[in-house]
Amino acid sequence: MVTEQKLEDLIRQVLSEMQPALPGKSSAQGRDTISIKDYPLGEKRQELLRTPLGKSYTEISLENVLSSKITPEDLRISAETLEMQARIAQEAGRKFFTENLYKAAEMTRIPDERLIAIYDALRPKRSTKEELLAIAGELENKYQARRCAEYVREAVTVYERRRLLRAE
Question: Which of 20, 78, 92, 94 pairs as cysteine with 48 (C-beta 3.0–4.6 A)?
Fold first, then answer.
């Protein structure tokens, strides 16, 4: 049987590496000095952890979830958290994981519905070259998602070579 304490522990475990201080906070709080020694953030740098709406990590409890003081939006990961995780991964020599974390940070700025539409457009034979290049431009210009835009451009190159683009 799941007890209230077990559920709270599970929520804390899931959030243990999420939500640093809000954007604009000074680096004196340590966001810019994150290193591998700070991993996992939820245990070693709890003071940096905030929900996307600015609530403290310690405010996350079953009671606050049930009373709606903590909302689903509070449980989403932020670009800042992912970027801190990327710095840790980079220091650990995890090149590809680092790049994926930076892409994920960029994706936090893109609405869920648009992400799903882009995912669908990237499926083989779903889009033309021009449509995918337009998506790359949108990612770069509208959402400042340069890494994600480059990923779509790479997909265009591969899709052309493998004949996976939709015929015009």
Answer: 20
Six token digits for residue 91: 């220091």
Going along the chain from its start, the domains and CATH numbers come out as 1-108 (no CATH), 110-168 (1.10.1510.20)
Nearest to 115 by CA among 70, 64, 85, 152: 152
Alpha helix (H) ranges present in 21-110? 41-44, 62-66, 79-91, 95-107
Three-state SS at 50 = strand
Polymer length of the chain: 168
pTM for the model: 0.75
Per-residue pLDDT for the chain (168 aa), expressed as one digit of tens each? 656 676 666 666 665 544 433 333 333 346 668 999 999 998 899 888 777 787 888 888 899 999 999 999 888 888 888 898 899 999 999 999 999 999 999 999 999 999 999 999 999 999 999 999 999 999 999 999 999 999 999 999 999 999 999 998
- Paired strand residues for 56: 50
Count of CB atoms within 10 A of residue 132's CB? 22
CA distance 104 to 12: 21
Is the backbone of residue 125 left (phi > 0), alpha (psi -120 to 50) or beta? left
